[in-house]
Amino acid sequence: MIENQKIRPAQVIGPLGEPLTIDSLPPPSTTRWVVRRKAEVVAAVNGGLLSVDEACERYSLTLEEFASWQRSIDRSGMPGLRVTRIQHYRDLYERQQRF
Question: Total domain count for the chain?
């Protein structure tokens, strides 16, 4: 009997167009989250390299924190992940939703 196993890709395309593998992802001990690293983790989850639960466990993230990264990328792309610009992009998105 064949067991139902999840088939994962060996690599996915990262946010800058480069191939991402499990080994090329930010290390689990990462504490400084720059835009590129956040985008790489989101790309890995979106591409099926990691599940949301695995990413949260691996990087000690809350589900809400990871979801906010995904929303920021969906709304504003990589610049939306900048901590210093969060309020600007949030306001811009809300204004766009009104019209």
Answer: 1
The domain of 86 spans 33-98
Does 92 fall in a domain? yes
Q: Could you read off the pLDDT of 60-88 as tens digits, one per residue?
A: 999 999 999 999 999 889 988 887 665 66
What is the enclosing helix (H) or strand (E) of 12?
strand 12-13
In a domain, 45, yes or no: yes
* Residue 33 neighbours by CB under 8 Å, 6+ apart: none
pTM: predicted TM-score of the whole model, two decimal places: 0.79
Q: What is the mean pLDDT of the chain?
A: 87
CATH of the domain at 56: 1.10.10.10
Unique residue bearing structure tokens 């989850």: 45
* Cα–Cα distance for residue pair 98/78, rounded to 1 Å: 23
Asked whether the CA dihedral 65, 53, 39, 23 is positive or negative, the reply is positive
Tell me what the mean pLDDT of segment 53-61 comes to.
Answer: 97
Task: Judge whether 25 lies within some domain.
Answer: no
